[in-house]
Design brief:
Blueprint lengths: L9 H77 L5
Length: 91
């Protein structure tokens, strides 16, 4: 009895491509997710840069205010020294 050779049908062809299709689909999904994550990190980085700039501006404002307060303290000390010198007992 001669062996009958089985002809591959369309379903067998599709079955043989399923692993390749799944790998390609997985790569596409992975790439898309990674791209979205990269964009999210870039947005977070931009927000952090804005926050750092804001803190830097606030720091400059605080330093300016501190310099004004130190100037006022120096003026008050000089005024008190002058007042004490003019109103010392026995002069």
């Amino acid at each position: 009895m001669a062996e009958t050779q089985r002809k591959p049908n369309a379903l067998d062809n599709i079955k043989s491509w399923i692993p390749v299709i799944l790998i390609v689909a997985s790569l596409i999904v992975g790439w898309t997710v990674m791209d979205q994550r990269i964009q999210q990190v870039q947005i977070e980085q931009a927000l952090m840069t804005i926050k750092i700039e804001k803190f830097s501006q606030e720091n400059i404002s605080v330093q300016v205010r501190l310099a004004e307060i130190q100037k006022d303290i120096s003026y008050i000390r000089l005024s008190l020294d002058e007042h004490m010198r003019l109103h010392q007992p026995g002069k």
